[in-house]
Amino acid sequence: MNDKLERLRQLADELNMHNVHYYMEDNPLVSDAEYDKLMRELEALEQELNIILPDSPTQRVGAPPLTAFDPLPHRTPMLSLANAMNAGELMDFCRRVEKEFPGEILSFMGEPKLDGLGVELIYEKGLFVSGATRGDGYTGENITANLRTIRQIPLKLKGDAIPDILEVRGEVILSHANFKKLNAQQEQDGKPLFANPRNAAAGSLRQLDSRITAKRPLEIFIYSPGEIQGIKFKSQAQFLEQLKAWGFPVNPYNELLPSSEAALDYYQRMEKNRENLPYDIDGIVVKVNSWRLQNELGMRTRTPRWAIAGKFKARQETTVIKEIIAQVGRTGAITPVAILEPVQVGGVTVSRATLHNQDEIDRKDIRIGDTVLIQRAGDVIPEVVKIISEKRPADSQAYRLPENCPVCGAPTSRVADEAVLRCSNRSCPAQLAGSIEHFASKKAMDIDGLGEKIVQQLIENNLLHSVADLFSLEYESVLRLERFAEKSAQNLIEAIEKSKSRPLAAVIYALGIPNCGEYLSRILAENFGSLAALAKASADELLALEGVGPIVAESIRTFFAEPHNQSALEKLKSAGVNPILQKEKKQEDARFSGKTFVFTGALSKFTRNEAEKMVQERGGKTLGSVSKKTDYVVAGENAGSKLSKAQSLGLTVLTEDEFLEMSK
Ligand code: IVH
Prior knowledge:
CATH architecture of the largest domain: 2-Layer Sandwich
Helix content: 25-40%
Radius of gyration: 30 Å
Bound molecules: 2-(butylsulfanyl)adenosine
């Protein structure tokens, strides 16, 4: 036991160390596979010993969803900053401070003003115990589970100088690159896009389900103290150094500024440098470096007298909307985009701005010919802030998105309560590549080898016009394509052929019905039993199902009502995509009915997934841990604790071959 406990501690330390190298220093010491192996060992040990260390890296993947966030009062209020709108106002601040302390050698700390979400992290005896949003400055929301998923946040402080209580504050941000990736994923999933990185970071951090937050590549920089008990600091510079020593991420552009002139220079340099940073900043913060002097200067009601935000010029300009076009994305979402009279905004020529959706157009009353104020956040596509109503042409008319898809002409539809308008035709050329990639993906038809590039190539060579065309692809025509050889062409044809036997739930998922994910597809499969029955389902029948509300019901009905989709489904059927409901199979073969199986050790004859499927198809259940209620334990190579437990409980232990024999 003690050896195992020691190993548990050792694994947690080692994995935490690898996290630092990977997420903070961008310099991994081990391969992903080695990292995963250590993680799996730790997970297994935690399960076996039933112990989870407070700084365990396994806890970063998210916890079950909450119903609401609890309030978390701040021990010291989280203040905001007074603003200096230009260089003159910034100099006024510095001069005022200098005047207050004649004869003192003053220095300032210059920091980028990160455009994200302010949060507080609380450590007790060096361990991360809770964290909150800023809220109204006095009480925030307890978002501990979400913060834990941010890999840069140390769960345990490094070093010896560990205060009893340490509260630190910082900004959670999303980089431009990760923002783009996240929006691409949102689009792929048929979900609404985020307007800018800040909104995306806020949306990610305020998820009730922290498993979703865990998938969002949030980052954080720490910059200010809350309550600290047991350690004293002389200056912001010393505090920032200590933050680094504890293992916190501290912004590399922070700079100690020896004078007011240096502060002004920093402001001007950072405004230029703004375009080169990988994340959004909306100004700089200048803080009096000495904490003694900060104390003497004290506070106004909500802002300190010892710091100021030097805001950058808003990257806003006015221009004219020449035209509004409706852009069709890969999931059929139709986005209105304003075509602008080109204008320079913060050094970049802008000629388009997203108008998001019809509601946004209506809310801002945006029309062709309007003069508008536009702004740019980061290198993100610009948006319209407002119209200048005085300049509206007399003959202007309200804009409405088209009733037919501008690419294929199929009717567009808007599901009740959803902001997005969509083209209803899955074979629309604008959606084709995306829908085929989704169709072929692992959880859908699982067509090995049919990735983005190949799909593109098949479309470009006129071989695919809908997903159904996959099934009439011929070996010879694939072989003729660049990059294909006999073997690879054969493999692709075989993988497509094999996909015909995918279960009903996977085929429903593969169709890519908006709002219809993997889980819902399973429910639909179980309740309707065939594509034909699902296609005929009434709104009431759909609404009767768990997890189906009006939006989802409507989206399923619209999908099956669309003639292009109906003809694609007909083609699939005649190609032999005739899904069988798993449940029917289960009923046919119920030899494991009521039996539970545990698989342990390294399996060589089948994968764990295949084994689970074999058991389920025969009416049995698989479980992760052994108990006296377990009927069979199937042990592969190097089976460990689960096997010994099974033996001590006198359970039936099978080899892989014996299991295969039983399943025949
Ligand atoms: S110091 C009393 N430093 O700006 C000092 N704030 O308008 C409070 N912010 O709510 C904050 N970067 O969310 C500080 N380097 C930085 C900052 C920063 C961004 C945000 C923070 C705060 C807001 C104040």
